[in-house]
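Lecture notes, continued. The same structure-token format from the folding unit now serves as the input rather than the output. Read the line below as a description of shape only.
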């Protein structure tokens, strides 16, 4: 004797009755999809990460600190990997991935990003002065990424797709950890 599958019950809204779903309806239920805000977040975050990688490139020739070099390597590796993942996420959803230098376009500056003048000032610095300016700038840059995530989550229905939710949550955890690490490094530098 063949056993029938257990019924699939969809709870109703408060005060509303539940309903039994047929198998086809239940199979068509999916996790929340992506939104236009999710796409804009990923596109913007690629540009945001690209500037962080540019800042790290400057560090390679302007610092004398092994600790700064290790920090730079962590940032470069993680942000480069994340940019690849974000491009793949966008392409899988038929959305355009911004070009490598799109963040230099007028009006493309996201929260925490350095202006061209601030990047030039960073590029001109050397040694301890560079280290201090880099840490201050990268802390502000990371805080900007936290603002971007906050704005994503404050948009109705955004940030719900499992991949984007996981990524945005990881951005918050990683950026907060790196902010704390850089703040400690900056404090040491200022002694």
């Amino acid at each position: 004797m063949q056993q029938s599958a257990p019924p699939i019950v969809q709870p109703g809204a408060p005060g509303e009755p539940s309903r039994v779903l047929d198998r086809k309806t239940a199979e068509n239920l999916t996790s929340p999809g992506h939104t236009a805000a999710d796409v804009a977040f990923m596109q913007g975050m690629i540009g945001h990460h690209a500037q962080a990688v540019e800042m790290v490139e400057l560090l390679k020739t302007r610092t004398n600190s092994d600790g700064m070099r290790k920090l730079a390597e962590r940032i470069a590796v993680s942000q480069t990997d994340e940019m690849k993942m974000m491009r793949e996420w966008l392409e899988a959803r038929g959305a355009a991935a911004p070009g490598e230098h799109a963040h230099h376009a007028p009006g493309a500056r996201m929260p925490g990003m350095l202006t061209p003048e601030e990047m030039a000032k960073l590029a001109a610095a050397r040694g301890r002065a560079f280290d201090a300016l880099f840490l201050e700038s990268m802390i502000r840059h990371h805080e900007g990424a936290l603002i971007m995530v906050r704005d994503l989550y404050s948009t109705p229905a955004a940030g719900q797709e499992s991949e984007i939710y996981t990524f945005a949550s990881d951005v918050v955890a990683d950026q907060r950890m790196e902010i704390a690490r850089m703040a400690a490094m900056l404090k040491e530098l200022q002694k």
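Point for the exam: The beta strands are 8-10, 19-21.
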